[in-house]
Design goal:
By secondary structure, this protein is of the alpha+beta class. It has four helices and eleven strands; from the N terminus they run αααββαβββββββββ. A hairpin with a 3-residue loop joins strand 7 and strand 8.
Length: 205
């Protein structure tokens, strides 16, 4: 279950208090740290976080609230070196408007530059290159690519797509890797290359 912004603030406040004092906060101290006047509000957040397994409580102690390993594991993943921004989704069918979704994906073995980012693939136009819907692609921001490179292309300054790039003089051919789909041909001034694919990550459930 996802955390709300306020629940994340509660967890971080507990972690900060423990780091500073070397013991767990009381409800009064936690309310003060969060700027809350109501202990009932603190209690509500504690119950919700306990149900999500981020906290445990020892009912025989006044300083009963303790962070669970789940919290620290998620913090390690968030702070992991090599994590890069997850910028949104990219079409692998017809171009669609891109959008910012936020978050991050770790590609520690590949991400060695600030010019890398991740996109989640939607569509089947690249399946013959083994890029499937639901995969993540690692992209390097670059303006100049070679024929045959798999690229992120911005078409007519409003839609993005994932295709193989071919320069045909006055036009750019954006070639799908799916024999059932036709290429997209666009006048060269209407195509902006936003990056080249470096790697593909697939998560099996």
């Amino acid at each position: 279950m996802a955390l709300t912004r306020r629940q994340k603030e509660v967890l971080d406040a507990i972690a900060s208090f423990v780091k500073e004092h070397q013991y767990n906060p009381s409800f009064d101290e936690l309310a003060s740290a969060l700027g809350l006047a109501s202990l009932a509000t603190v209690h509500k957040h504690i119950l919700a976080l306990e149900s999500k397994q981020y906290l445990t409580r020892n009912y025989n102690r006044s300083r009963s609230v303790e962070l669970t390993p789940k919290y620290f594991e998620e913090q390690r993943q968030f702070d992991e070196p090599g994590a890069i921004p997850l910028m949104g989704r990219i079409a692998a069918g017809q171009p669609v408007e891109s959008f910012d979704r936020g978050g991050s994906v770790s590609f520690a073995d590949f991400a060695n530059s600030a010019d890398t980012y991740a996109l989640e693939v939607r569509g089947d136009s690249m399946i013959e290159d083994h890029i499937c819907s639901g995969d993540f692609v690692l992209v390097q921001r670059i303006n100049h690519v070679r024929n045959g490179d798999i690229v992120v292309a911005l078409v007519e300054k409003r839609e993005t797509t994932l295709k193989r790039f071919y320069d045909e003089g006055d036009a750019i051919r954006l070639q799908p890797a799916n024999s059932e789909m036709s290429p997209i041909r666009v006048p060269k001034p209407d195509v902006e290359i936003q990056g080249k694919v470096l790697a593909v990550l697939r998560k099996y459930r």
